[in-house]
Amino acid sequence: MNNSVGNTARLLWAGLRALLVLTVVCGVIYPLAVTAVAQGIFPDKANGSEISSNGKVVGSELIGQRYDLPLKKGEETAAPDLKWFQPRPSNGLGTNSVNTQYKLILSGATNRSGDNKELIDWVTAAKAAVVKDNSVPGHPVNPADVPADAVTSSGSGLDPAISPAYAQLQVRRVAERNHLDVAQVEKLVERHTDGRILGFVGEPRVNVLQLNIALKQLVNGS
Protein backbone atom coordinates (compact mmCIF):
# COMPACT_ATOMS: atom_id res chain seq x y z
CA MET A 1 0.00 0.00 0.00
CA ASN A 2 2.77 2.43 0.98
CA ASN A 3 4.71 1.57 -2.18
CA SER A 4 1.61 2.26 -4.29
CA VAL A 5 1.08 5.65 -2.65
CA GLY A 6 4.76 6.48 -3.02
CA ASN A 7 4.77 5.55 -6.72
CA THR A 8 1.69 7.65 -7.33
CA ALA A 9 3.23 10.61 -5.53
CA ARG A 10 6.43 10.31 -7.57
CA LEU A 11 4.44 10.17 -10.83
CA LEU A 12 2.40 13.20 -9.85
CA TRP A 13 5.52 15.13 -8.89
CA ALA A 14 7.22 14.17 -12.17
CA GLY A 15 4.16 15.26 -14.13
CA LEU A 16 4.00 18.55 -12.25
CA ARG A 17 7.69 19.23 -12.89
CA ALA A 18 7.22 18.47 -16.59
CA LEU A 19 4.23 20.81 -16.68
CA LEU A 20 6.19 23.60 -15.01
CA VAL A 21 9.24 23.15 -17.25
CA LEU A 22 7.19 23.00 -20.47
CA THR A 23 5.12 26.01 -19.39
CA VAL A 24 8.25 28.08 -18.82
CA VAL A 25 9.99 26.88 -22.01
CA CYS A 26 7.01 26.92 -24.38
CA GLY A 27 4.93 29.64 -22.76
CA VAL A 28 7.61 32.13 -21.74
CA ILE A 29 11.10 31.52 -23.13
CA TYR A 30 10.10 30.45 -26.66
CA PRO A 31 7.63 33.34 -27.29
CA LEU A 32 10.12 35.87 -25.92
CA ALA A 33 12.91 34.44 -28.09
CA VAL A 34 10.75 34.49 -31.23
CA THR A 35 9.61 38.05 -30.46
CA ALA A 36 13.19 39.20 -29.89
CA VAL A 37 14.41 37.62 -33.14
CA ALA A 38 11.49 39.09 -35.10
CA GLN A 39 11.99 42.58 -33.65
CA GLY A 40 15.73 42.35 -34.28
CA ILE A 41 15.64 41.08 -37.87
CA PHE A 42 12.42 42.48 -39.38
CA PRO A 43 10.69 44.80 -36.88
CA ASP A 44 8.51 46.38 -39.55
CA LYS A 45 6.82 43.11 -40.49
CA ALA A 46 6.69 41.93 -36.88
CA ASN A 47 4.72 45.05 -35.94
CA GLY A 48 2.07 44.57 -38.64
CA SER A 49 3.71 46.26 -41.64
CA GLU A 50 2.41 49.63 -40.47
CA ILE A 51 2.34 52.60 -42.83
CA SER A 52 2.88 56.06 -41.37
CA SER A 53 2.17 59.50 -42.74
CA ASN A 54 3.30 62.69 -41.00
CA GLY A 55 4.41 60.65 -38.01
CA LYS A 56 1.02 58.95 -37.59
CA VAL A 57 0.17 55.33 -38.35
CA VAL A 58 -2.55 55.39 -41.01
CA GLY A 59 -2.84 51.70 -41.85
CA SER A 60 -1.05 48.52 -42.81
CA GLU A 61 0.40 47.64 -46.19
CA LEU A 62 -1.29 44.24 -45.81
CA ILE A 63 -4.89 45.41 -45.36
CA GLY A 64 -6.93 47.38 -47.86
CA GLN A 65 -8.92 50.50 -47.03
CA ARG A 66 -11.82 52.27 -48.65
CA TYR A 67 -11.86 55.92 -49.67
CA ASP A 68 -15.47 57.01 -49.45
CA LEU A 69 -17.39 60.22 -48.92
CA PRO A 70 -19.30 60.62 -45.64
CA LEU A 71 -22.49 58.58 -45.62
CA LYS A 72 -25.46 60.78 -46.46
CA LYS A 73 -28.92 60.49 -44.95
CA GLY A 74 -30.89 57.74 -46.64
CA GLU A 75 -27.81 56.08 -48.14
CA GLU A 76 -26.97 52.48 -47.30
CA THR A 77 -23.57 52.59 -49.01
CA ALA A 78 -21.27 55.59 -49.09
CA ALA A 79 -20.22 56.90 -52.50
CA PRO A 80 -16.51 56.66 -53.38
CA ASP A 81 -14.41 59.80 -52.96
CA LEU A 82 -13.19 60.09 -56.54
CA LYS A 83 -10.22 62.34 -55.79
CA TRP A 84 -8.44 59.22 -54.48
CA PHE A 85 -7.36 56.02 -56.17
CA GLN A 86 -9.97 53.40 -55.37
CA PRO A 87 -9.27 49.82 -54.22
CA ARG A 88 -10.89 46.60 -55.33
CA PRO A 89 -14.53 45.92 -54.41
CA SER A 90 -15.05 44.23 -51.06
CA ASN A 91 -18.31 42.35 -51.48
CA GLY A 92 -17.10 39.44 -49.35
CA LEU A 93 -16.75 41.48 -46.17
CA GLY A 94 -19.25 40.95 -43.40
CA THR A 95 -20.17 42.77 -40.23
CA ASN A 96 -19.98 41.56 -36.66
CA SER A 97 -23.44 40.58 -35.46
CA VAL A 98 -22.46 38.33 -32.54
CA ASN A 99 -20.33 40.41 -30.20
CA THR A 100 -21.68 43.90 -30.83
CA GLN A 101 -19.45 45.38 -28.12
CA TYR A 102 -16.84 45.82 -30.87
CA LYS A 103 -17.18 47.24 -34.36
CA LEU A 104 -15.49 44.58 -36.45
CA ILE A 105 -15.18 43.83 -40.15
CA LEU A 106 -15.24 40.15 -40.99
CA SER A 107 -12.93 39.10 -43.80
CA GLY A 108 -14.22 36.69 -46.43
CA ALA A 109 -14.95 35.92 -50.06
CA THR A 110 -18.32 36.19 -51.81
CA ASN A 111 -18.46 32.40 -52.33
CA ARG A 112 -20.50 32.84 -55.51
CA SER A 113 -20.01 30.68 -58.58
CA GLY A 114 -19.22 32.24 -61.94
CA ASP A 115 -22.79 31.81 -63.17
CA ASN A 116 -24.41 33.10 -59.98
CA LYS A 117 -26.92 35.84 -60.84
CA GLU A 118 -26.04 37.95 -57.80
CA LEU A 119 -22.34 37.87 -58.70
CA ILE A 120 -23.12 38.72 -62.32
CA ASP A 121 -25.24 41.66 -61.15
CA TRP A 122 -22.43 42.86 -58.87
CA VAL A 123 -19.85 42.68 -61.64
CA THR A 124 -22.14 44.36 -64.17
CA ALA A 125 -22.95 47.22 -61.79
CA ALA A 126 -19.31 47.60 -60.75
CA LYS A 127 -18.17 47.74 -64.36
CA ALA A 128 -20.73 50.41 -65.23
CA ALA A 129 -19.63 52.44 -62.19
CA VAL A 130 -15.93 52.16 -63.10
CA VAL A 131 -16.66 53.33 -66.65
CA LYS A 132 -18.83 56.24 -65.45
CA ASP A 133 -16.52 57.36 -62.62
CA ASN A 134 -13.31 57.24 -64.63
CA SER A 135 -14.52 58.74 -67.90
CA VAL A 136 -13.40 62.35 -68.23
CA PRO A 137 -14.17 64.84 -71.01
CA GLY A 138 -12.43 63.72 -74.18
CA HIS A 139 -11.31 60.43 -72.66
CA PRO A 140 -14.20 57.99 -72.16
CA VAL A 141 -13.33 54.61 -70.68
CA ASN A 142 -13.85 51.65 -72.98
CA PRO A 143 -15.70 48.91 -71.02
CA ALA A 144 -13.36 46.36 -72.61
CA ASP A 145 -10.43 48.08 -70.87
CA VAL A 146 -11.81 47.56 -67.35
CA PRO A 147 -9.55 44.97 -65.63
CA ALA A 148 -10.98 42.10 -63.60
CA ASP A 149 -9.73 43.40 -60.25
CA ALA A 150 -11.76 46.60 -60.75
CA VAL A 151 -15.03 44.67 -60.58
CA THR A 152 -14.28 41.63 -58.39
CA SER A 153 -13.24 41.33 -54.77
CA SER A 154 -10.31 39.26 -53.57
CA GLY A 155 -10.61 36.05 -51.57
CA SER A 156 -10.25 37.98 -48.31
CA GLY A 157 -12.03 41.15 -49.37
CA LEU A 158 -9.10 43.05 -47.85
CA ASP A 159 -6.58 43.05 -50.70
CA PRO A 160 -4.45 46.21 -50.28
CA ALA A 161 -3.25 46.26 -53.89
CA ILE A 162 -4.68 46.75 -57.36
CA SER A 163 -3.23 45.93 -60.74
CA PRO A 164 -1.18 48.56 -62.60
CA ALA A 165 -3.90 48.44 -65.28
CA TYR A 166 -6.59 49.48 -62.79
CA ALA A 167 -4.36 52.19 -61.33
CA GLN A 168 -3.64 53.50 -64.83
CA LEU A 169 -7.36 53.51 -65.62
CA GLN A 170 -7.91 55.93 -62.71
CA VAL A 171 -5.08 58.32 -63.56
CA ARG A 172 -7.05 60.87 -65.63
CA ARG A 173 -9.91 61.03 -63.14
CA VAL A 174 -7.54 61.49 -60.18
CA ALA A 175 -5.55 64.13 -62.07
CA GLU A 176 -8.70 66.06 -62.97
CA ARG A 177 -10.19 65.91 -59.46
CA ASN A 178 -6.94 67.12 -57.88
CA HIS A 179 -6.06 69.69 -60.58
CA LEU A 180 -2.84 67.87 -61.43
CA ASP A 181 -1.10 67.16 -64.70
CA VAL A 182 -1.82 63.65 -66.01
CA ALA A 183 1.92 63.01 -66.51
CA GLN A 184 2.55 63.73 -62.81
CA VAL A 185 -0.01 61.18 -61.71
CA GLU A 186 1.25 58.61 -64.22
CA LYS A 187 4.76 58.96 -62.80
CA LEU A 188 3.31 58.53 -59.31
CA VAL A 189 1.73 55.22 -60.34
CA GLU A 190 4.95 54.05 -61.98
CA ARG A 191 6.97 54.79 -58.83
CA HIS A 192 4.53 52.82 -56.69
CA THR A 193 4.23 49.79 -58.95
CA ASP A 194 5.89 46.72 -57.44
CA GLY A 195 7.05 43.93 -59.72
CA ARG A 196 6.71 40.20 -59.23
CA ILE A 197 8.31 38.84 -56.06
CA LEU A 198 11.75 37.43 -56.94
CA GLY A 199 10.93 38.26 -60.51
CA PHE A 200 8.46 35.44 -61.08
CA VAL A 201 6.07 35.06 -58.13
CA GLY A 202 2.66 36.75 -58.32
CA GLU A 203 1.73 39.71 -60.49
CA PRO A 204 2.80 43.37 -60.59
CA ARG A 205 0.75 45.39 -58.12
CA VAL A 206 0.16 48.85 -56.70
CA ASN A 207 -0.47 49.38 -52.99
CA VAL A 208 -3.44 51.76 -52.87
CA LEU A 209 -2.72 53.23 -49.44
CA GLN A 210 0.90 54.03 -50.25
CA LEU A 211 -0.15 55.50 -53.60
CA ASN A 212 -2.79 57.73 -51.99
CA ILE A 213 -0.33 58.95 -49.35
CA ALA A 214 2.05 59.95 -52.15
CA LEU A 215 -0.84 61.58 -53.99
CA LYS A 216 -1.74 63.63 -50.92
CA GLN A 217 1.86 64.78 -50.61
CA LEU A 218 1.90 65.74 -54.29
CA VAL A 219 -1.34 67.72 -53.94
CA ASN A 220 -0.03 69.50 -50.85
CA GLY A 221 3.23 70.25 -52.63
CA SER A 222 5.41 68.48 -50.05
Describe it for me?
- The strands form 3 sheets. This protein has a 3-stranded antiparallel sheet. It has a two-stranded antiparallel ribbon with strand order 1-2.
- 17% of the residues are buried.
- It is elongated and about 100 Å long.
- It is built from 6 helices and 7 strands.
- It is mainly alpha-helical and 222 residues long.
Architecture blueprint of SSEs:
Elements lengths: L1 H40 L1 H4 L3 E4 L2 E5 L33 E2 L9 E2 L10 H18 L26 E2 L1 H14 L4 H10 L1 E2 L10 E3 H13 L2
Antiparallel strand pairs: 1-2, 3-4, 5-7, 6-7
Helix pairs in contact: 4-5
Characteristic key phrases:
222 residues; mainly alpha; three-stranded antiparallel sheet; two-stranded antiparallel sheet; 6 helices; 7 strands; 9% strand; elongated
Trace the largest sheet across and list its strands. Answer: 5-7-6
β-strand percent reads 5-15%
Query: Rg to the nearest angstrom?
Result: 25 Å
What integer is the average pLDDT?
A: 88
- Total helices: the number is 6
Number of strands: 7
Q: Give the terminus-to-terminus CA distance.
A: 85 Å
> What letter string, H or E per element, gives the SSE order?
HHEEEEHEHHEEH
Q: Quickly give the structural class.
A: mainly alpha
Helicity level, as a percent range? Answer: 40-55%
Shape: elongated
Largest sheet: 3 strands, antiparallel
User: Low-confidence spans: pLDDT under 50, at least 5 residues?
Assistant: none
